[in-house]
Design a protein that fits this description.
Number of helices: 16
Shape: globular
Structural class: alpha/beta
Strand content: 15-25%
Number of strands: 19
Radius of gyration: 23 Å
Largest sheet: 9 strands, mixed
Amino acid sequence: MDITALYQLFLSSTGVTTDSRNCPAGSLFIALKGDNFNGNAFAAKALEAGSAYAVIDEPQYAPAGDPRYFVVDNCLQALQQLARHHRRQLGTRIIGITGTNGKTTTKELVSAVLIQSHRVLYTQGNLNNHIGVPLTLLRLRAEHDLAVVEMGASHPGDIKELVEIAEPDYGLITNVGKAHLEGFGSFEGVIRTKGELYDFLRRRGDSTVFIHHDNPWLTDMAWGLNRIAYGSEEGLYVNGRVTGNSPFLAFEWKAGRDGQRHEVQTHLIGAYNFPNALAAVTVGRFFGVEAEKIDQALSEYVPQNNRSQLKQTDSNTLIIDAYNANPTSMNAAISNFRGMQAPHKMLILGDMRELGKDSAEEHQKVVDYLQECGFEDVVLVGEMFAGTRHPYPTYPDAPALIAALQADKPQGKTILIKGSNGIRLSTVVDWL
């Protein structure tokens, strides 16, 4: 593939799109393929809708002599190589963020802090895979002096693929835990895959990582790297402690041993978000953001997209964490809810997906923990929870639960809603 020629098309365009339903005037359409679609078949439609050029990998879709078509061997590889080439041309400093839990929230918090003093590009939503990362990089412009790129993984090698596209200068792994075990094969597989970020930075040489010092797994993984540490221990680059959590996280932090203490009241639900907030403080200080601006950014940030959101309805107070769930995040959410000062607690929990052979055991551990905590008002949703031993009402799916709520709606409850996105517990919110 002639990356130079493709790059010239990109520079003359208004941006890249892979969706023929969204083709801004002058854009560059890249025809990707999926299990149920072939983007090549929509190239002509993209051009009609406003794209200036269409990149395809099946020549039969290019009319003879039409200069608007650019044929490559593989459109996905072309997208990825174009993104890496663009990243190299600009030389923007990039912070790569991954982890089992909290990577999207951490990305949002880090970006909110850095924007106070820098021109920052950051991943939109959770576009953190082999398509989303290149699309993020292709939004880089010369005016950006920093980029925060989220990287997700569900199989070994996923992070390696992404770092070789983004070529980050700095790394941050939020944590490692039990998630996507079906794809990773084991917890050790999770560690190896997340560690691919550190592996890349070691190969670069003289690279810096922002590391949660309280997490021994991360400390062991980060050998040979320059570590900027945050956590609860005095003397770290940034240290702090939780000061409140009912329902919103409050914490204090200071830099080193002799720094001034700062109090921050957030709109984040859950003490498990404390390391995410402290990571944002650490990255902000490293890149020269004033302490007062860091505090302001974290206090003003409001989570969206069913991630630790607080919602007050006419009938109940909802803690909505229905975007994703795995054993690590589920236990953290339950533990946090247990310690929260709130009246009439209720839990609506959905299955945790992609746990493979460990699924039955991990779901049983969750219901055992619920009983250990003494929760009585619990509703479970999904076939995996249905297969566990417990005393709680269980529904096969979200529509079945909604039907039950229509007949008997809870009143005056504080309700934790947590489950994998595929269980669709977010659809239950309107009935509470």
